[in-house]
Structures are given as C-alpha cells and as structure tokens.
Amino acid sequence: MAILAPTNELYADAPTRALRIFPAGSNGEFNLPPELVRVIDAGLGCRLRDTGGREMLDFSMGWGSVLPGHAREEVVAAVAGRVLGEAGPGTWGGTNFSYPNAQSLALGEELLRVQPSRDRRVRFCASGTEATMHCLRLARAFTGRKHVLKFEGAYHGSNDEGVTSLFPGGTTPFPQPEPSSAGIHADYTLVAPYNDLDTTRRLIAAAASDLACVIVEPLHRCLTPRAGFLQGLREACDAHGVLLVFDEVVTGFRLAYGGAQQYYGVAADLVAYGKALGGGLPIGAFIGKADIMDIVREDRAGSPEYVWTASTLGGNPISCAGALAALEIYRREETYPALHALGEGFREGLRRVLRDTGHVGQVIGDGPLGQIVFSSEPVFDYRSTIRGDRVKSRQMMLGLFRRDVFVNPMGTKLYLSLAHNEGAIEEFLSRLGSVLRQDVGKA
Ligand SMILES: Cc1ncc(COP(=O)(O)O)c(C=O)c1O
C-alpha cells in the first residue's frame, strides 16, 4: 500500500506529472532520460519503492544523507516523538523556533565534543551548501582577504565557489577558475590540483597576501589523499596565515565519528557538516575556532569584521532530534568497523565484476563509498579521473537504473549505509555484471 494515498489518485501518472512541473523531471542533478524518471513513494533499509510500486536497491541513499538506512526505527521514533510533542497532536511540541532549543543545544554540544580542540563554536543551518558558504564568508571576513582556493573538480554545494571548476574541461591553467554554471561569480576563486602538494604549495605562496582560505573535501569526491597531502596543506596554510577549511559534508560521521579530522589526523580551522549528520533530516552545521566564529555575534553588527549567518530552519528541533538519534547509532562500537568492512568488500566486489566482465577500470573510495573509473591508469585527481571513459560510466549508471538500482546517473559515486549488507551488495554486483556485459561497450 502506498504511503500517502489511500487511493491511487495522487500516484497516477506521477512521472509524467513530474516531467511537467520539475525541470527535467527532477529536483536537481538527475539527468535521466524521460522514460526513467520516477517518483519515490517510500524507502525501507537500503530499498526504495516508487509510486508504481516498483522496488529499487538504493545505492545513493539520499546522496549519502541517510547513513542509518531508510526508515531506521531509532531516527523515526526520535523525529515522531519530537513532532507529536508532549501528549500527542495539539499539545506542547512544535516544529521550528529559529532559536536554540533543547535538541539543538544537545546536538551542538555533541558536535563540539568530537572536535580536535575545546576552543570551538558551532552554528546550524539547513544544508551543506549553506555550511560551506558560511565557512568561506567567515574565512574572508576574519582574514580580510578576498580569494579562496579550492581543488579542481571539488563540489562544495551549489554556492558560487562550489560550482566553480566543478567539471571544467581540464586544460585551464592553474589557478585560473572555470565556471561550471552560468550566473555565478568565479572571480575570487583560485583552483589547484588535488593531491599535488608541490603545485598547491606554490599557488598558496603566490596568492598568500590576498588568500583567505583553502577549502578541501579531505576525501576528494572518492579520491583518497596521498600520504602527507592534508598535513602538507595544514603546514602551507599555517606558513601564510591562510585558514584551512574542511568540507566534511560527505566525510563527516562517515569515515569516522570524528570525520576526516579524526580519520586523517589533521585539524581544520573551519569545518562544514551536512548529509549524514542529519541521518536524512535537513541539516547543516559549521564549526570553527572561537575567535573566528565569534565574528558572527550579532552584538558586533556594525563593526568591520561582523559576519551575517542567519538561517530560519537552522537548528530546528526536528532535524536535531533526528541527528541526535543518528549520532547515537554512529557512536555504537560496531558502526565504523562494519561500515569499513562493508565498503572494502564492496570495492573488492566491484574489482571482481570488472575482471569477470573483461572491463578495465579503477575502483576508488574509502569507508562506505565506492566508484568505478573506466581507466587503465591510476586516478588521483580530477584530470586523471576525466581521462577515464565517461561514456561507459554513463552507460553503466543508466544500465543500473534500468535494472532497478537507484543511483544518480550524473555522478558515479555509490553510497552504502548501515542498512546494506553482503546480500544487498551481491544483488548489486550481479546486476552490475549484467550491465557491464550487456550495456557497456568494450573498447
Ligand atoms: C562535499 C560536499 N559539500 C557540500 C555539499 C552540499 O550539500 P547540500 O546538498 O546539503 O547543500 C555536497 C553535496 O553533495 C557535497 O558532496
């Protein structure tokens, strides 16, 4: 039975209606041919069901936000409890106050507890895009410098810097930015090659007098940092009074409870969180050293360094209740060993299927993340990744989608969750085998 409609009226022709009201039939970044457009009814564990009652294996998991798994009991109970209030509908409860509340206070304390030092403060917002935007604004205001340096191909959300040099042609000389969207200003963004510490050091030194920060996805998309790369960034930033911003929207609570800062042993000056933090509820958070964060204090309004950071839904009690429940799950002893074991088995399985089907490719990722790049050479940055066969990647993602594996065919990143198990992975690998045999052209 469908969740929302007691009759099927609300579900009738849903994909056609979606194509009519949403540009390209989606809410963003799903480049699907019209016949594959779906409307989701519900999820459970690592599966989704669409409005036609068709089940799909989910290897996107709300772009990684639903790390606990769909409809995970503890998260649902926490959200329902908070929504229903003291004694059911119509009694003291509430959905948003735009002010600190018991849940946002507890969540903020927990977030600060896992930071590398005690002198940190936090503010909430509603998405990863807002979190990175606030970090960049804070860095510029605190240092009084205009430029930020990002890595080619990095995504930091749909703010201007996030979509600068997101999918460039790969020939623009560093540090020149290349907008990947019309309507944005890329003028104060510099671009460096990920994993190339020498070049990045040189670019930082050359730009230092007007460089506010370096922002990095510590695990760049699915590419792992070379030994010493993040430490080297930390040192180069320190040498020039440049702030280091970790975009932990993907790595936060996914690679380790303390995120990439803990996993790689490097402390950042400002950190952006989203996705898994909310366990599927809308959330963003940015954390920084107290002296940086305190320039958002509203009693400083009017002073030259004051930074505006408001968010109507930031810290709303429902998202924070969901996040607290998700964190309680993540804190369990078995969580990260399980996620890493699952991820390793998954990536090994991807390599096996490539071998068995006669395709040449690189399998990348860490923790509960995996990706195939159809390249015979090792991949370590954006340019080496796009030298891979992107036509094959698209054929693979569409082939998976056609075989009822829910993925985002505009990307190639595959997300596991705590609801995935070996059975689900074998099911995926078997469908992938068919796709690679039947749909993906061999060079
Ligand atoms: C590394 C990274 N940063 C930021 C974002 C933006 O987060 P949101 O979509 O919640 O705005 C994303 C989203 O995919 C991301 O992958």
Care to describe what's here?
- The structure is a single chain.
- By secondary structure, the protein is α/β, with parallel strands linked by helices.
- The chain folds into two domains: 9-71 and 334-438, Aspartate Aminotransferase, domain 1; 102-330, 3-Layer(aba) Sandwich (Aspartate Aminotransferase, domain 2), CATH 3.40.640.10.
- Helices cover 35% and strands 14% of the residues.
- It contains 14 helices and 14 strands.
- It has helices at residues 14-21, 61-64, 73-84, 102-113, 128-143, 197-207, 229-239, 259-264, 290-293, 317-330, 335-357, 382-386, 390-402, 422-438; strands at 40-44, 47-50, 55-58, 120-125, 147-151, 189-192, 211-216, 243-247, 270-273, 284-289, 362-364, 369-373, 405-406, 414-415.
- Strands 4-10-9-8-7-5-6 form a seven-stranded mixed β-sheet, with helices on both faces.
- Strand 2 and strand 3 (55-58) form a beta hairpin.
- The longest helix is centred in the C-terminal third of the chain and has 23 residues, at 335-357.
- It is globular and about 60 Å long.
- It starts with 13 loop residues before the first helix and ends in a 5-residue tail after the last helix.
- The mean pLDDT is 96.
- Pyridoxal-5'-phosphate (PLP) is lined by residues 63, 127-129, 132, 155-157, 217, 247, 249-250, 274.
Question: How would you briefly describe this protein structure?
Answer:
The chain starts with 13 loop residues before the first helix and ends in a 5-residue tail after the last helix. The protein has helices spanning 14-21, 61-64, 73-84, 102-113, 128-143, 197-207, 229-239, 259-264, 290-293, 317-330, 335-357, 382-386, 390-402, 422-438; strands at residues 40-44, 47-50, 55-58, 120-125, 147-151, 189-192, 211-216, 243-247, 270-273, 284-289, 362-364, 369-373, 405-406, 414-415.
